[in-house]
Structures are given as structure tokens and as C-alpha cells.
Amino acid sequence: MENQPSPSLWSIDDRHRTRPTPTPPTQPLLPVDVVEDKKGVCGSETKTKAFDICTPKQSGGPVVLKPGLFAKNKERRKELKQSSKEIVELRPGMVHLKGYISRTDQVKIVKKCRELGLGDGGFYQPGYEDGTNLHLKMMCLGKNWDPQTSRYVDQRPSDGSVPPKIPHEFVTLVHSALKDSQTVTKLSNSKDLSLFSPDICIVNFYSQNGRLGLHQDKDESEPSIAAGLPVVSFSIGNSAEFLYGDERDVDKAEKVVLESGDVLIFGGKARKVFHGVSAIKPEAPISLIEETNLRKPGRLNLTFRQY
Ligand SMILES: O=C(O)CCC(=O)C(=O)O
Ligand SMILES: [Fe+2]
């Protein structure tokens, strides 16, 4: 499966033949990186600061010396070498598509997530019932996952916001990744990676100390889990150490590094695999950061599921 053409996110009809249609003009981003959301629950006024996953462009301020041209070109050559495509079956039902999302599409995903993340239902700091916070920022699309109750609801309880819809371009890319991953699982069981219609996407943003403990994704509906409908995960930005295993035990877990542009899929027999993120690594593609101003270090992860 080496060197497959990468699907383009904005070419809808036939990703292998059609040139990507020009990016639709993005809505103007909100003017400031902090948005005050005055919609409260039950009429009370709460102020939620939307988290900006990108660093707003500075006007004035201290001059930052950029790396020289030679150093930059060297970085880019390294990036090109590293972005080799490969599909690896990690275990039955669990597939790692390395370098699957093109750099252009990664840029589009970051920009779209930033735009949505600054609006109603955008990035916030999730916390558990006992008052502890998750070590990441979160935004839900389609339906809201509530960490306090581990349930999906239509509105975010903390501010009453309604989650934005999943952009259809994201769904197109999920379907392409599933179809391509089925080719490697033909010999084992391609039903593990059956096509589905994602109606939920949880978008996580990890900074330097971001992490996520070992857990199972099991809050989707019973029929969805029973059918083994897969979870499809996109990684963008800094690389991450991703753990997975049969039990909630870090010492027994296996480890894989997820890099920018990687897609990970787990369904069928692997649908209830324990998984988590143990660390964010320093590596990030320089061209992506330059084009998007994604915070450094910063890792965006999108997991698509069907309720
Ligand atoms: O960030 C990741 O790679 C995993 C995210 C995850 O497991 C989740 O959101 O349930
Ligand atoms: Fe998960």
C-alpha cells in the first residue's frame, strides 16, 4: 500500500481523478482569540473563554528570529522523507494509516477546527465530576460528550451551547480512509472496518503536557458498539505516544507513535481496545505550523464515531 495518492479533503467526486476544488472561502475568523460567550444555562450569565488552537498573528511586539533558509530547507527535506505512506495492521480490527492525510488537507483541517473552535460550542476545558480536569482542550461536533456523566447530549451542560455540525469534507475523508484500510484487512476480516456514517466527532487539543489515560470508547449506543462500528482518528500537529492494549494497564500496553497526517482506525474485534495518549513529542511539521500558526507544541486529534 505504499505511495498511494493521498485523498484530498475538498475533492468530493473522485479523489483519485478530480483536482481538488478550490477551498471555499472560509468565514472570517472571529477578530480576537478570546471569545466571551454570554449564553448561560437556565438564563444565568456565564462567560466561557473559547480556546484558540492557533497563535494569533502578532503586530508589533518582540522580533522573533526565524530559522535561516538553509535550515528550513533541510527541515522540509526531512519532512518529505518522513511522510512516507504505509498501512499497518496493528492487531485484528486496528489499522494505522501512516501519512495518509496530505499536508494541504491537514492545513484545512486545522483552519476549520480553529474557526469552529472559536465559535459557540468551541474548544473548552473539560473536567470530571470530582473537579479534576482532563489534560487537554475539547470540542465536540454533532453531539456533545459530557465527561461528567460519560453520556452524549445535544447541548453542553456548562454553557448550553449546541455542538457544531461535522463538516462534510471530514466525513468524505473518513470514508476514504475506511475504504483504503479495508484493502489490508481483506485477509483477516474487513468487516471489522465497515463503513459507517459518523455523527459524532470529538476534537481534542493537546499542549506540551497533554495526555489522556487508558480508556475504552464505549459511550456510543449499544447497537453501534455491538456492531463494532469503528472509531476513526486523525492526528495533526505534534506527534504523540499512543498506547493500546487489552486492559487498563500502562505496563502491559503496546506503544505506537502517531504523527501529523496519520489516521488510526479501530473497529470490530478491536472496538473496545483500551487506548490513551502518554506523551506529546517535540516533532511537528514545520510547514504546517508556518501555514496555520498552530500553537507549539500542539496536537489536534479528531475521533469520528457513529452514535
Ligand atoms: O488523542 C488520541 O489519539 C486519542 C483520543 C481518544 O482516545 C478519545 O478522544 O477518545
Ligand atoms: Fe478514546
TrEMBL record:
Give the cofactors, semicolon-separated.
Fe(2+)
**Known PROSITE patterns for this protein?**
FE2OG_OXY (PS51471)
Q: Does the keyword Oxidoreductase apply?
A: yes
| Residue span(s) of domain Fe2OG dioxygenase | 197-307
Transmembrane region(s): none
GO CC term (a single one): cytoplasm
Q: Where is this region: Disordered?
A: 1-31
Pfam families named among the record's database cross-references? 2OG-FeII_Oxy_2
Write the record's keywords in alphabetical order, separated by commas: Dioxygenase, Iron, Metal-binding, Oxidoreductase
Q: Which InterPro entries match?
A: Alkb (IPR004574), AlkB-like (IPR027450), AlkB-like_sf (IPR037151), Oxoglu/Fe-dep_dioxygenase_dom (IPR005123)
Q: Tell me a Gene Ontology molecular-function term this record carries.
A: ferrous iron binding
**UniProt-annotated binding residues for Fe cation:** H215, D217, H275
Q: What does the Swiss-Prot or TrEMBL cofactor note state?
A: Binds 1 Fe(2+) ion per subunit.
* Biological processes per GO annotation: oxidative RNA demethylation
**Which family is this protein grouped under?**
Belongs to the alkB family.
- Name this polypeptide is given: Fe2OG dioxygenase domain-containing protein
Give the originating organism.
Vicia faba
